[in-house]
Amino acid sequence: MPNLNKLRTAISGGRGGDPATDAAMSRLIRLRTTLTIFFALDGFLFAGWVVRIPAIKQQTGASASDLGLALLGVSAGAVVTMMFTGRMCARFGSHPVTVVSSLLLALSIALPARTHSALTLGLVLLLFGAAYGALNVSMNSAAVDFVAALRRPVMSSFHAAFSLGGMAGAGLGALVAGGLSASTHLLALTGVGLLVTVLAGPSLLRHTLPPAAGPAPSPGKAAAPRRLDRRTRRLVVLFGVIALCTAYGEGALADWGALHLAQDLDAGAGLAAAGYSLFALAMTVGRLSGTALLERLGQTRTLVAGGALAALGMLLGALAPTTWLALAGFAVTGLGLANIFPVAVARAGALAGPSGVAAASTLGYGGMLLGPPAIGFLADWFSLPVALTTVALLAAAAALIGYSARNVSVPDSGAPAHRGVPAEIPAEFPAEAPATARTAHQEG
After folding, report:
1. Which residue has the higher pLDDT, 130 or 136?
2. CA atoms within a 13 Å half-sphere pointing along the CA-CB vector of 262
3. pLDDT at 151 over 90
4. Are 245 and 286 in the same domain?
5. In a domain? residue 255
6. Residue 178 in contact with residue 282, Cβ under 8 Å?
7. How many domains is the chain built from?
8. Pair (155, 242) in one structural domain
9. Do 202 and 234 share a domain, yes or no?
């Protein structure tokens, strides 16, 4: 959490002590805490599901390709939902949509353990994927609005909370995998999700954002979107592809990492489940240190170094002959992937504003959701270790694409990327350091 002086400065431009500023500051603190809880809950529930995939595969008797098709239900449900969740947020507000989506996610996570065939598993995963996609779009929309109102680069802290939640969920799964059935475990996660949503939801619904600095649109009218030229659209897609390449790896490790350790390296249930927990821990550490890394290396070097590190780590994780070497590879992969997605989305947002952020994020989530089914098909055709090497290939591709875009410049005019943030400052950089933000795109 940023300290109170930084919050006060962000709200009032440096003036503190008046009741209105203190009240706005308190609202922002409470809202940030609540949003952080929802991000952590999302990661916790999702990780709780993925560490039980080996048990549910055995329960349903599905082959690798059948499981891949079933997992496609998550992808299909999420992608379809993402297409209209933004409109729902615009109509009803991102906060109510976040609460409803969280309730649906908590209810749907218990369903996969009740299935006994790949077909029924795929059908219930459609609902699970729909809830997951809606929650991710709505809570990220709420977080983007929060960052705009605060005018500080705190988006990465929300994603760190997601990673921490994932680490906790995977760690808990590793502890109970040997003693609890998948059905009991996932039903308990439903209870946790409902309880947290019921307790935190009213706070999210009650607290609205204070007005951001800068001119506001007229009542009842949204700000006019900036018209993008063809070159800018291509560049946004380019950064979206970088996000897709890296999110592919996160989704693949989430759904197939534990199975690789258990099936190919004969790891026990607890140790196999710990693989994703270690990956999530490394990614969390990388995201928590992301601001310092960006300030030292700049965006391009951070992106290229992260992609190269993730590629090397995943080659080790996929092809290592022992469990411990594979776990080390998972950790290195998490460190490498940690900041690539935020950098890619920030570059897209600096180029095209909110539409750029939305496009890159959607492509990124598409990679996370469509990667696991692709791994399943490749595992059936070749083997799971060979299939997992595609994560390394795409991470290396992200590094190459990022290097090729090192000279992309931020437009000098046009609407700002976020409400209340100067147009030349990418969202991942502190508002008080414009010089760093303006020169980062020129680095090689």
Report:
1. 130
2. 23
3. no
4. yes
5. yes
6. no
7. 2
8. no
9. no
Query: Shortest CA distance to 207 belongs to which of 425, 29, 422?
Result: 29
Summarised one tens digit per residue, pLDDT across range 280-316 is 789 889 888 877 787 788 778 889 999 999 999 999 9
Has residue 219 been placed in a domain? no
Under 8 Å between Cβ of 2 and 152? yes
- Enter the DSSP assignment of 209: P
The answer, yes or no, to whether residue 236 has pLDDT greater than 90, is: no
Q: What is the DSSP letter of 217?
A: P
H/E segment holding residue 122: helix 118-150
Q: Nearest Cα to 401, choosing from 232, 243, 265?
A: 243
The C-alpha atoms of residue 44 and residue 105 are separated, in whole angstroms, by 11
Q: Quick check: 332 pLDDT over 60?
A: yes
pLDDT recorded at residue 358: 64
Q: What is the pLDDT of residues 44-97, one digit of tens each?
A: 999 899 888 888 988 888 887 888 888 888 878 887 887 787 778 778 888 999
Task: Say what the pTM is.
Answer: 0.71
Are residues 344 and 414 part of one domain?
yes
In contact, 10 and 150? CB cutoff 8 Å: yes
Same domain? For 111 and 244 the reply is no
| 8 Å CB contact between 249 and 371 | yes
- Sorted by sequence, the CB contacts under 8 Å of residue 421 that are 6+ apart come out as 147, 148, 151, 427, 431
Using 50, 70 and 90 to split pLDDT, how confident is the model at 193?
A: very high
Mean pLDDT of 249-257: 87
Identify whether residues 100 and 189 lie together within a single domain: yes
Question: Residue 406 is which amino acid?
Answer: R
Regarding whether 153 and 59 lie in a shared domain, the answer is yes
Residue 214, phi-psi category: left (phi > 0), alpha (psi -120 to 50), beta (remainder): left
Asked if 421 and 148 touch (Cβ cutoff 8 Å), the reply is: yes
Q: Contact, 2 vs 154, CB < 8 A?
A: yes
**Do both 9 and 89 map to the same domain?**
yes
* CATH assignment of the domain containing 419: 1.20.1250.20
* Full residue range of the structural domain in which residue 86 is found: 1-210
Within-domain flag for 221:
no
Q: Which two tokens stand for residue 211?
A: 């007005």
Q: Is there a contact between 278 and 331 (Cβ–Cβ < 8 Å)?
A: yes
Predicted confidence band at 434 (pLDDT cuts at 50, 70, 90)?
Answer: very low
